[in-house]
Amino acid sequence: VNKIAILTSGGDSPGMNAALRAVVRTGLYFGLEVYGIMRGYSGMMEDDIFQMDSRSVANIIQRGGTILKSARCKEFYTAEGRAKAYANLKKRDIDGLVVIGGDGSFTGAMKLQAEFGIPVIGLPGTIDKDLYGTDFTIGFDTAVNTAVEAIDKIRDTADAHDRLFIVEVMGRHAGYIALHSGIATGAETILIPEASTNMDDVIASLSEKEKRKKLVNIIVVAEGDAFGGANEVAKVIKERLPKFDTKVSILGHIQRGGSPTCSDRLIASRMGYHAIEALLAGKSNVMVGIINNEMSYTPLEIAIREKDIIDEDWLRIVKILAS
Ligand code: F6P
Prior knowledge:
The chain has helices at about 15-30, 40-45, 80-90, 105-115, 140-160, 175-185, 200-210, 230-240, 260-280, 300-305, 310-320, and strands spanning about 5-10, 35, 50, 95-100, 120-125, 165-170, 190, 215-220, 245-250, 285-290, 295-300. It is an alpha/beta fold. Strands 3-2-1-4-5-10-11 form a seven-stranded mixed beta sheet, sandwiched between helices. Strand 10 (about 285-290) and strand 11 (about 295-300) form a beta hairpin. Helix 1 packs parallel to helix 9 and helix 5 (about 140-160) crosses helix 6.
């Protein structure tokens, strides 16, 4: 490998810039030419590619978003789109690609690798923590901390007015943001797609609390929960427990932004460094992750397909601590 390109794709996540910085500087350290691709696969197709040096990534480790910008690109799903994109790498003799993103971004990388033989390495950049083969994804810790800060504030109002708040957090089809932020804020109930949501249980638990005059409650709902988001949950509660002063708060994209936490900067830096080491060692088609504080390399296909199992213990902890 002599010339590599890097892109960020899919939903942005805090720490993508830190990862980018690590990849660029490690690549340069090992004598590689490094190219940045703007707006993910869109920029690859539109030939929006530029050579990067050490200064290109100065002063970005602390910044949210991504200086390379990101996009979700439909045309790249077609073989013609990918051929057009690859031609732009080929004409520069780029012979390695690092993709920072989530499952959609990895699928694109796998296809490029299969069709044109270019080695690709994935870095898990998503707030959702929905990739297999890593304990943490870049951006998850920041997103969870943002959610915790927001829910703490919501609890002040819940407490002042004796209200029940239903807070919806992001995560797409995964419940990790809800699980972690819910436990950390002392939520009464956490509703996630990985566990079945039984509204009768939720109602029974709230009624029992009402009898004890415990009216301050926070329910954290993952946007991907099978029962539906916060609005659906609120509808049922308002109907069946009209005595509760029920409010909905959907946190939304606030969870995607902001300066990455120390933990996200650290994993981004380590993963970025190891992306280059992996390419130089001849690895391809793998996602660099960290499991039990050790670097790990999981085939992209498995990283996307397999699911981590949420430990039943965690849900038990929620129940016991919220009494
Ligand atoms: O994957 C990150 C994420 O923020 C998900 O949690 C959410 O479902 C989705 O992206 C939202 O996508 P968009 O920003 O395109 O609306």
